[in-house]
Amino acid sequence: QVQLVESGGGLVQAGGSLRLSCAASGSVFSSYAMGWFRQAPGKEREFVAAIRWSGNNRYYADSVKGRFTISRDNAKITGYLQMNSLKPEDTAVYYCAVNICSGYGCYRTPIYEYDYWGQGTQVTVSS
Q1: What is the mean pLDDT of the chain?
Q2: Residue range 28-34: mean pLDDT, rounded
């Protein structure tokens, strides 16, 4: 079992930046991906970014490409989401998730294939 704890959310003005963290603990798996998802009021939870842990392969939603950067720290078993040039439409609860999977392409899997989820952290961008 894996436990995930997100942090770093808050209130920022449009154009500002935030850095989210996802600290993992518990079982260690040989192959997995870490993803970031977000859910705004009245909307479905949507994919933001994902990373293949071992190979550092990265994938982004078109809406955040060029503004957000996903990364990982193997020593700390922690993932990060650097969010720059934030827009009001980025306002949402952001969730970290882990997908236990094998293969070099497993970081591109759909949301329903993710196995573990954090509690979420609120990001609010004012205009």
Answers
A1: 94
A2: 81
